[in-house]
Amino acid sequence: MVTCTVDIDSVVHYDVQFFDEAAVVAIRNGTPSPAIPHQFPMGIAFLLTFCCAAAAFVLTGLKDYLQAQIGLSDRTLILQPESRSRQQRFDVEHVPGVYGVVEFSPNAPELEPIVTGPLCAWHACTPEPAQVDSEGKVIEWQHTSEEDGKPVTRSCLLKTAVTIGELDRLFYESAERTVLMASSHLGERLAKQALRQSDVV
Ligand SMILES: [Zn+2]
Question: Which bin fits 3, alpha (ψ -120 to 50), beta or left (φ > 0)?
Answer without folding.
Answer: beta
